[in-house]
Each structure stands twice: as C-alpha cells, then as structure tokens.
Specification:
The complex is a heterodimer of chains A (about 375) and B (about 525).
Chain A (H helix, E strand, L loop, with lengths): L6 H22 L1 H6 L9 H12 L2 H18 L1 H10 L1 H21 L8 H28 L3 E3 L5 E3 L12 H25 L3 H31 L2 E4 L6 E4 L2 H8 L1 H24 L4 H21 L25 H11 L2 H16 L5 H6 L5
Antiparallel strand pairs in A: 1-2, 3-4
Chain B lengths: L6 H42 L2 H34 L2 H35 L6 H30 L4 E4 L4 E4 L2 H5 L2 H31 L4 H36 L1 H7 L6 E2 L3 E14 L2 E12 L2 H7 L5 E2 L2 H6 L9 H24 L2 H12 L1 H6 L19 H31 L6 H9 L2 H16 L4 E3 L3 E2 H4 L5 H32 L4
Antiparallel strand pairs in B: 1-2, 3-6, 4-5, 7-8
Helix pairs in contact in B: 1-2, 1-4, 1-6, 1-16, 1-18, 2-3, 2-18, 3-4, 4-6, 6-7, 6-15, 6-16, 7-8, 7-14, 8-14, 11-12, 14-16
Classes of the chains: A mainly alpha (about 375), B mainly alpha (about 525).
Chain lengths: ~375, ~525
Amino acid sequence: MTAIISQAFLQHYWWIIVSVLASLLVFLMFVQGGQSMLYSLPANDIHKTMIINTMGRKWEFTFTTLVTFGGAFFASFPLFYSTSFGGAYWVWIAILFSFTIQAIAYEFRSKPNNFLGKKTFDLFLFLNGSLGPFLIGVAVATFFTGAMFTLNPMNQVRWATHWYGLEALLNIRNLTLGFAVLFLARINGLLYIINTIDDEVLIKRSGKALIVNTIPFLIFFLFFVISLLVSKGFAADPLTGVISVEKLKYLHNLVQMPFVLILFLAGVIGVLYGIGITVLRRSSSGIWFSGAGTILSVFSMFLIAGFNGTSFYPSLFNLQSSLTISNASSSLFTLKTMMYVSFIIPLVLAYVWYSWKAINNKKITESEMNSEEHKY
Amino acid sequence: MIDKIDLSLVDWSRAQFALTAAYHWLFVPLTLGLSFILAIMETIYVKTGNEEWRRITRFWMTLFGINFAIGIATGIILEFEFGTNWSNYSWFVGDIFGAPLAVEGILAFFLESTFVAVMFFGWNKVSKKFHLVSTWMVAVGANLSALWILVANAWMQHPVGMVFNPETARNEMVNFWAVLFNQVAVDKFLHTISSGFLLASMFVLGISAWYLIRNREEQIAKKSILVAGVFGLLSSLMVAYTGDQSTRTVSKVQPVKFASMEALYEGKNNAGLIAFGVLKDTDKKIGDKTEKEFAFKIQIPGLLSVLTGGDRNAYVQGLRDHILGNEKLQITSASEKILRGKYAMTVLTSYKKARYNNDTALISSIKTVFNDNEFQNRYFRYFGYASVEKPDDVIPNVTASFYSFHLMVILGFLFILIFSVALYLLFKGTISDNKWFLWIALFSIPLPYIASELGWLLTELGRQPWIIQDLMTVTRAVSQISTGSVITTFILFAVLFTGLFISEVSIMVKQIKTGPKH
C-alpha cells in the first residue's frame, strides 16, 4: 500500500476527488436550474411555492458541495487556488455574489417584515439560478481554453489584463460551456420537479419546458465538445514539466484513456436517456439517469483536463506558468494526510442519501404547501 | 523578485476581509450556541413527551433558521476571499491552511447541511428519535465547522508543524497533529465555542425576559430561561476559564501582542494586572510611535506576574524588550530580526536565481545552507521580518488592543453575574416580579455580540503587521489586483451585508413579536 502512495499517485487521487466534487456540484445545480425558471415555469403562485420548496430543501447540499469543492481544491492544489482566485478576481467574485444572495433568499422570502420584499428575494433566486451555473461553466471552460496569468519565481500570480478574469467572457468557447451548464442545470431542475412534485398541470408544463431546454443544451454542448476535440491543448512533459502546445491534445487524451471515453459516452447517454424516458414514457425517474449521466460526463471532462500530462489551467500569457496536477499540488505529507480524511467520504454520502430519502419520501403537494409550518 | 506593494490595496483588502469577518461573526456564534440549546430543549421534549417543549423548540428553531442562512452566506465569501484577496498568502500556507478547510467541508459542513434539512422539514416525516439525532448532529456539525477554521486561524497566530520548502517557496506541513493540537488552537476553539454558547443563552434569556415584561408566554419564557440560565452560566464560567488559558498562551507565543493588550511598554517584575484603565499619549517614543501611559487605572498589584510567570517576582516582558532587545533575557531586537530576515530572503532569492540559471553547484550549496539548523533557527525563523521596514512597525495598535481586551474581560464577568441572578430569581419564583432585571436581561442581548467582536478585533489587530506571526506580513500576502476592483467589491459587499443584516433583524423582531404558534 505505502509503496504505491507516491506523490504522483496522490496528485491523481486528489484530482479524482476534486473531479467527483465538481461533478456532484454540477448535478446538484438542478437547484439553480429550477430557480432560473421561476418566472417562466409556474402557471400560478402555488406552483411557484411548490418549486421553491422542492428546490429549497436541497439548496444547502449544492452550497456545501461548492464550499467543499473550493476547500478541497485549496488543500490539494493550492497553486490553482491562489492563481485563479487571486487573478480571475471578478469571475469568482461574481460567482460568490450570486451564491450569497441565494443563501438567504429561501429563508427570508416569505417571512413577514423581510425589508427587501418577496419580489427582491425571488429575483435573488432567479439571478443565482441563471448566473451561478453559467459563470461556473465559464470558469471551468478556462481549464481548457486558458487564462491570462504569469507566476513569478515565488509562485505569486500577476494577471496580465486589467479585466481580472472578465476577459473569459469574450471567448466563445467559454460562453458555450457556460450556456451548456446552465441548460443542463435547467433540464435537471425540470426532471427533479417532475420527480418530487405531485401536480398534474405543473408536471405537464415541466415536460414541455424540458423539450424547449434540451434543444439549446444539445447545441451548446455539442459545439463545446466538438471544438474541444479539434482544438489544441496544453501538454506537460512528464520528466521536465515543460509545457508545450499539442494539436488535438484533448482528443488524444480520450483515445489514450479509453476508460474516460467510456465514462463520457455513458454520461451523455445517461442524460439523454433521462430526458427520453420523461418525454416519451412520462416517467418521473428521469432525474436519476440524467443526474448519473451529468456526474459521469462532468467527471470525465475533468479527467481530460488534468490527466495524461495535461495542464489543467494553462496560461496564455506565459506558457511555462501553466498549472498541472504535478506543479500545483500540495506536499506529499499533506496529500497523504488528506487522503486518510477522504476515506470518510463514503460515510458522508451514506448519511446524505439516507436523509435525502427521509425528506423526499412523500411528494410535495398543494395541500402540504398550505399546511406545512416550515416552508419557504 | 517580490514586487512593490500598493499600501492602499493592502488597506482595502484588509477592510474587505474585516467587513466580511465582522458580519459573519454577527451570525455564527448564535448558530453555535442556539443549536445546542435546541438540542437540549428537544431532548427534554422527547424524554418527557410534554408538547409544550416541542412548541418551545420549534419557536427557537424558527429564529435559528433565520440566522443560520445568513451565517452560511457570509461564510462562503470568507473562504473564497483567502484566494481572491490574499492569494500570495494562500500559496505560502496553502499546504497547511487548505487541509483544515477541506476537512471542515467534508466532515462538518455536510453534517450540518444534511441534518439541518431534516431538522426543519422532518417533524412530520421522520421518527421523533431520528429528528432528535438530526438536531444534535446540526449542533455537532456547526461546532465542528468552527473547530477547523479556528485551527487554521490558530496556526496564523502560532505557526507550528511545518517546514519551509525553498523549492516551492512555501511552508509545508510535516506534522498534522501539531497543527491540530497547537495550544493556541485548543484555547481558541474552547474559548470561541463557549462564547457562542454564552451569546445564544443571553439571546434566549433576553427575549424570554421581554415576554415576561409584556406578560406573555409565561410558561415558555420561564422554561426557556431555565435552559438558557443553566447553559449560560456554565458557558460564561467556561469562557472565563478558557479566556484565562488563552491569555497565558498569548503571553508565551505572542509576547508583543500580549504587551500591547496590557499596554506594557517597560517589562518588569511584580507587574500588576490592570483591571481597567484610560490611556493617554506621552512624550516618549519607540521609533515613530508615541508611547501611551495610564491617565487612570485600577490595578491589582503583582497579579500579572503571578498569572503569566507563576509568582510575584516573575518578569513580564514589555514592548521595549521586543523592539529594542533585552540581552539579559536573550530577546533579539526587532532591528536585528529585520537584518536576519533580509539575509534569509537574500539566500532564498539566490536559490531561485540558481534554479533559474540551472546552476547545479550553487543550488546544491544553498540547499545545504537551508538544511542547516543554525540558518533555520538564527535566520530563517525571522524570514517575515525581511518585509518589515523599521522596528516599530512590529508594534500593533496598542490602544485598540488594550481597550478591546479589557472591555471584553469586563463584559465576561458581567455575564456570569447576569446568568447567576437570572437563575437565582427563577428558582426563587420571583423573576416575573423583578422587572428591573428583566429589562437588564433584554438590553444585555447585544453585549455578548460586542464582546465577541472585540475578541476578534484583539486577535487580528493584535497580530499586526503579521498575517502569519513572524513569517509573513499582510503587505506581502495581498493579491496583486487593482485597488479599484477591491474598493468596488468592498462597497458591493458592504451594501449587500447591511441590507441582509437589516432584513434579518427586521424578520427576527417580527417573529419574536408574533411569538410561538399555539
């Protein structure tokens, strides 16, 4: 056991953990997806209340996963944390801002004397629902398209533009992934509503909205994936760590790591199957297939970004400042200590699952919304 | 190699972090304490089957929910601000600091967020026992969250369990248990959570007192006072004990901070403990900084020596000892530390240049220097001093340190008195008749908040100019972004937090006026 626990092994291990957290985060952003349709999906106020309450019982999971994702990244790849957060300032601040206004909106919106008014808090939910997934998608896209930074010999970051990260919004591929993540979140939001709310009219409206959202999702997703596979990538020499530009790098990664290709394809099929059985068979279980598919595809995208000698945060300004899982990681000791801590994750998942089921054992109904004491 | 730092950027970055932390800390202590009070109340309900206790629990749970969300909202910003505004720091200590932060997420946040949903929504969905376990898990999760972030903060006060790696230009952890069981961390954790328990107890006591003043909800109010009184008294005693422990530790590991909070310029034997005093400027100076003296003071002779050194004749070090040095006590002067720090920085810079030029002979020889104990103990331990311009820069704000410490201590003793009187009157059966006390209890609600914020002011201001004691100054830690960006986000966050704070207080007051549901 100890023989295989080398720094390289642990760097890969921690990249897998970070990727798992990222994929869970994208799945759990069904909460944001649901919020982004607050003004379009419900036909009346009771629908809106039901949507907000079904999402509101899960918002903390998404939030906690985001925080843990940040914490795990900080612990395992601190150079990414300091480089990206300290340089692409405005992108991360915008993401933070959108999540901050969400955290209080659920609890405050329907309470009397809430100062800002119900409409403001609903607007907060809408803004978080729309901007959160989009901006996270844009930020993750820079793992493939690169960012404008340089590191000095002390590993201190200097950003090369005065836009401090906002320049990422000028790249069409970044925007495409942003929109793909947003529409995926909306699809998962709709599937979750269908799974947890008992209201015929709302389910029918959700089914229609599902088709409407699937089309742009497929367009944006396919555009991003195709552009990724034909684009150049950033390769790190395994011996010297020197970074170079490699044509078709991400396609090579898929071919050279067939298990990732299989995971990716299984993920895409899962999402499409989840949508398909909902639209064609009126099943309410689509969220589980689509959710699992989301997790698998995002997970495999992260592996493409960081494995197989790839720079997961390329610098377009100074190529040799690019980050890899090798040069950005914590020390062997820290990674090893953290590995022992990570062994507790299955236990965490077990009690999350148990509690999730305990709360979701009955569907949300109109009568519950009129009687339940603690509601949003 | 290390660029010139824009001081206004440093100030605005500090202001933004202070703003976020101060707001965050307005909400978190109530979560820490009220979660346990809820768990105790619900346990009584489950044990006795008395529906009254269920109503009480649910009422306080509503207030808990309002406060909980805003604590989370401000918390996420703090976590990410380490990266956005203190990126150099994040790299320099990420190998150590990141680990507690990740453990916090995996162990504590999930516990808290999973079971809080069951706690709020599970009353009619899960069994009584499972619900009770969930409420306890929320309390445990919330307090575990505090543990890990306090471990990280304690490391900034007293860095242990690491070595500096010149290759990566950062500190790397070599002993996790040393980081976790750092004496500062143990003191800080116990002191902080017990202050949260105290604050929540005062919150419950004050609101219950208001009901009694208004002749409303008498049974609920008295039962709540019983729980809050007992929990509050125990907590306030624990706060006093852990505060004492914490101060003793500070006197050993952060003597400059300790001297500042006592406003002690000249070290002395038989030093008296200042119970309270008023500071004024003198004509004397250390460097450019004007020394203070007491215009008025209440002092207990010899007690400071007894508390820190064990006997009346023990010597307590003053600020002058640390700035000018004290040969007899083998205290190195700040100017000497600056010279040694600069030398350590020169060696590191040479190493980096050798690396850049791939000069293997030079790399090897400098590496030998780095591994030498003499170099580590004599020079590299003062590495952070390389960024200090002049010796008096290492003196924190004495006025702020002194007053924040002493006001906090005075309030701490006042809380013991308030909880004792509350329990005495409750058991005597006359609490409703003593309106004077009920008003005191009501108006005491803000006091633990003030004490708690003062505690953090002391912790953070008293450590200046360091972000990590002796290793890194705040000027070196800051992210190199435009000052304008930080000013803009400062204003954005200030407006947002203030709006949310007003919203929370307004909702809270309305819920309290409405009272428990019948």
